[in-house]
Amino acid sequence: QQQVKQSPQSLIVQKGGISIINCAYENTAFDYFPWYQQFPGKGPALLIAIRPDVSEKKEGRFTISFNKSAKQFSLHIMDSQPGDSATYFCAARREGAQKLVFGQGTRLTINP
Amino acid sequence: ETGVTQTPRHLVMGMTNKKSLKCEQHLGHNAMYWYKQSAKKPLELMFVYNFKEQTENNSVPSRFSPECPNSSHLFLHLHTLQPEDSALYLCASSQYADTQYFGPGTRLTVL
Questions:
Q1: The predicted structure's pLDDT at residue A95
Q2: Which residue of B9, B38, B43 is the best one to mutate when testing the A interface, meaning the one whose CB has the most A CBs within 10 A?
């Protein structure tokens, strides 16, 4: 119930393409879903987050799509750039809770 | 210094050693966290401190001993570790349950 399952584990996309990373959860009490981006030698940094009252949130080239009935959410990176090469983690938590439950991470490589 | 800093960045220790990891946050937050990051596994929350008080311990072995002397500093004391404890240890801070800001981590190798 506490798990967040993330796929794929690794992803290679050509420059200019669309990168898509998927996550699924079981706990219906989760109501905050952030995505973190981690570069080598750095800690994870918040990229974008969504709450279940909306089905989509867009910030620049990054979009979260949320399907409450399917208990799934995904990150789309449009016009992917080599600088987007990093590890991406989805996460989830309950309202007001401090514990974040993380997915396993996706190593994204954007080929020039 | 800005954000969340961690020292040392790399640490190699034997199983009988005692060492400490240090974390400092310069964001004025009231909550601090220790996470363990192992290859191909989700980040694992270890401890949570709110206003210097430990509020969560996720069944962490006693060979890991946290200390939070004030809201800006967090330590993780290590003793008699096992090779499987080798990982990246991340510190984070937040204002209550808001966005967590992570430090760069300490890469720990236990021989």
A1: 85
A2: B43
